[in-house]
Structure formats: structure tokens, C-alpha cells
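Weekly modeling sync, notes
Attendees: AB, CL, MP (scribe)

Item 1: holo prediction request
CL wants a bound-state model with protoporphyrin IX containing FE before deciding which constructs to order. AB pointed out that an apo prediction alone won't tell us much about the pocket. Agreed to run with the ligand included and paste results into these notes for async review.

Input as submitted:
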Amino acid sequence: MERIIVWYLRMSVFYFAAGALVGFCMLLWPDESGYYISSHAHLNLLGFMSMMIYGIGYHILPRFSGVHIYSQSIIRIQFWLANTGLLGMAICWPLVLRQIARPFSEVLLMISALSSLTAVVLFAFNIIKTIKPADK
Ligand code: HEM
Ligand code: HEM
């Protein structure tokens, strides 16, 4: 397995643990829970689930099609955009909801969300350009 793909999978399980920990803390402190739902949901869904799908997708889909991934550079750029984007979202969301360090936290949340979105679009582009139907 390629090194960068191992890193996608490592970060995925890291976000799973972080997301579950935030969820558990939300149960411990229900009055505070509302500030952290979006961080919790996206650590789990954009972090654990999506990052796992990025890694497994990049490993398996080209093998199904018998080709190489369209762009290795996109895999790397996407990795950094997805991780900085998600970390920024997870940290800034509660700050924004708690009205801490605004408007700086809001701007950073927007930039992070845009970074995550770009990673999603790059993944879609790279996969679309990679997969192709089997020859008849
Ligand atoms: C140890 C594991 C987990 C704990 C303790 C936990 C705990 C919680 C808690 C306390 C809430 C807030 C519920 C509310 O007040 O409405 C919540 C919401 C949520 N959780 Fe988890 N969770 C865990 C794992 C997961 C996982 C693995 C996922 C997804 C893969 C997930 C996705 C969500 C989502 C999407 C919401 C928001 C639902 C909404 O919008 O109302 N959680 N979780
Ligand atoms: C570019 C990446 C993403 C951005 C910028 C984004 C943004 C948002 C925003 C602004 C909300 C509303 C939060 C609020 O209630 O104020 C939200 C909610 C939600 N999103 Fe996302 N999202 C992204 C990706 C995803 C993905 C990939 C999933 C699932 C696989 C997902 C699942 C959810 C769920 C379940 C909620 C409702 C729970 C909550 O209140 O946070 N999102 N998202």
C-alpha cells in the first residue's frame, strides 16, 4: 500500500477516536453539547468516514479498473486540503457558535470549509478520470 494512502487511513481512525471522544464529552456535559454537534458530526462523517473512503477508494478503484490513479499530485494536495480543512472546521465551529474571536474564527471556518470542499471536488475529479468500464 502506498505511503500516502496509509496516511489517509491513519488520519481516518484518528478522526474516529477524536469524534467519538467529543461525542462522549457531549454526553458528559449535555448543557455544552450544542456547541460541539457540528464538530462531532464532521469529525466522524468528513473525518472518519470520508477519509477512510478516500484511502480505500484510491487503493482499490484503480485495481478494479486495471489502471493507475489519474494524478498522484492530486492525491497529495487533496490530503493536505482535506486535513487542514477538517481540523480548521472542527476547531473553529465551536468558537464561532460561542462567539469567541469573531470575526477571525468565522473567516477561518469559511476558509477551512472551502478547503474541505476543494478536497471533495479533487477526489471526485481524480476518481472520474481514473475509472473506466471494462473492455467487452
Ligand atoms: C463514542 C461514540 C459516539 C458518541 C458518544 C456520540 C454521541 C453523540 C451525541 C451526544 C450527540 C448529540 C445528540 C443530540 O443532542 O442531538 C451526537 C450527535 C451526532 N452524532 Fe454522534 N456519537 C458517537 C459516534 C458517532 C459516529 C461514529 C457518527 C457518524 C459516523 C456520529 C454522528 C453523529 C451525528 C451526525 C450527530 C448529529 C445529529 C443531529 O444533527 O442531530 N456519532 N452524537
Ligand atoms: C465540504 C465539506 C462540508 C461542509 C463545508 C459542511 C457544512 C455543513 C454545515 C454548514 C452544516 C450546518 C451546521 C449547523 O447546523 O449550523 C452541516 C451539517 C451537517 N453536515 Fe456537513 N458539511 C460538509 C461535509 C459533510 C459530509 C461529507 C457529511 C456526511 C458524510 C456531512 C454531514 C452533515 C450532517 C449529518 C449535518 C447535520 C449535523 C450538524 O448539525 O452538524 N457534511 N454541514
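Recorded for review: The first helix runs from residue 3 to 28.
Action items: CL to compare against the apo run; MP to circulate these notes.
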